[in-house]
């Protein structure tokens, strides 16, 4: 099969089958070259329904999870987006295709460089990749959309405070064996509405707060 045929099969059998029905998202994922964002040694499974390993114990999100994130955010093309956890840049590219601009933060320097190269090779010009620790975010009313690609063992309200009114936050909360993906909307100066989306498993955000452990 050709690369394009494999990509279309990925969308039909994985993404669409997981209730991603937004035609803009489906068309985007059929056109976006996922294979360019996959490490060379894993390109044979670029379109598989799996989390592909990256350096430092990180992973690319499975295609169906990327699709659900993009669909849930309902991007209109005029938003400013903050992504925390760039990885290889694949989700970054999807966000950039549907938004005005993306600022993405990655804590591992080699992943920063790789993501920049991947985005440039894919012709993505409206995404800026920064070397920084997303767990130290201290911004308010700054973004239309915030996306965390790693989990928060404990929910941290600093990320919702970074939203403008009307903004949306995608976040995964919890620890194994159950983590919940949520969409949080800022509906007022101090009012937020939370929607449960699906369950998944991803790495925790480095340096994120964790629940206290009991010792006997």
Short descriptors:
216 residues, alpha/beta, 9 strands, 6 helices, Rossmann fold
CATH class of the domain at 64-200: Alpha Beta
Overall pLDDT confidence? 96
Give a count of the beta strands, DSSP E runs of length 2 or more.
Answer: 9
User: Strands across the major sheet, in which order?
Assistant: 5-4-3-6-7-8-9
SS strand fraction: 25-35%
Give me the Rg, rounded.
17 Å
CATH fold assignment of the domain at 64-200? Rossmann fold
- How many angstroms does the end-to-end distance come to? 58 Å
Q: What level of helicity do the residues show? A: 25-40%
- Assign the CATH superfamily of the domain at 64-200: Vaccinia Virus protein VP39
Note the run of SSEs as H and E: HHEEHEHEHEEHEEE
Which descriptor suits the 3D outline? Answer: globular
Written account of the structure:
The protein is 27% helix and 30% strand. The strands form two sheets. The protein has a seven-stranded mixed β-sheet. By secondary structure, it is of the alpha/beta class. α1 runs antiparallel to α2 (23-31) and α1 packs across α3 (63-73). The radius of gyration is 17 Å and the shape is globular. It has a domain at 64-200: 3-Layer(aba) Sandwich (Rossmann fold). The model has no long low-confidence stretch (mean pLDDT 96). The termini are far apart.
């Amino acid at each position: 099969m050709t690369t394009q045929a494999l990509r279309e099969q990925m969308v039909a059998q994985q993404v669409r089958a997981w209730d991603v029905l937004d035609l803009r998202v489906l068309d985007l994922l059929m056109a976006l070259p996922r294979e360019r964002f996959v490490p060379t040694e894993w390109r044979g499974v670029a379109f598989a329904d799996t989390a592909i390993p990256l350096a430092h114990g990180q992973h690319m999100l499975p295609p169906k999870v990327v699709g659900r994130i993009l669909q849930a955010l309902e991007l209109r093309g005029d938003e400013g987006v903050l992504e925390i956890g760039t990885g290889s840049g694949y989700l970054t590219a999807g966000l950039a295709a549907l938004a005005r601009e993306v600022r993405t933060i990655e804590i591992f320097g080699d992943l920063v460089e790789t993501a920049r190269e991947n985005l440039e090779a894919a012709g993505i010009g409206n995404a800026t990749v920064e070397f920084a620790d997303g767990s130290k975010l201290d911004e308010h009313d700054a973004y239309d959309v915030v996306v965390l690609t790693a989990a928060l063992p404990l929910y941290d309200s600093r990320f919702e405070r970074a939203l403008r009114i009307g903004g949306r936050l995608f976040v995964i909360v919890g620890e194994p064996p159950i983590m919940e993906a949520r969409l949080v909307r800022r509906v007022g100066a101090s009012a937020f509405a939370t929607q449960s989306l699906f369950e998944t498993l991803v790495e925790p955000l480095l340096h994120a707060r964790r629940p206290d452990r009991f010792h006997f």
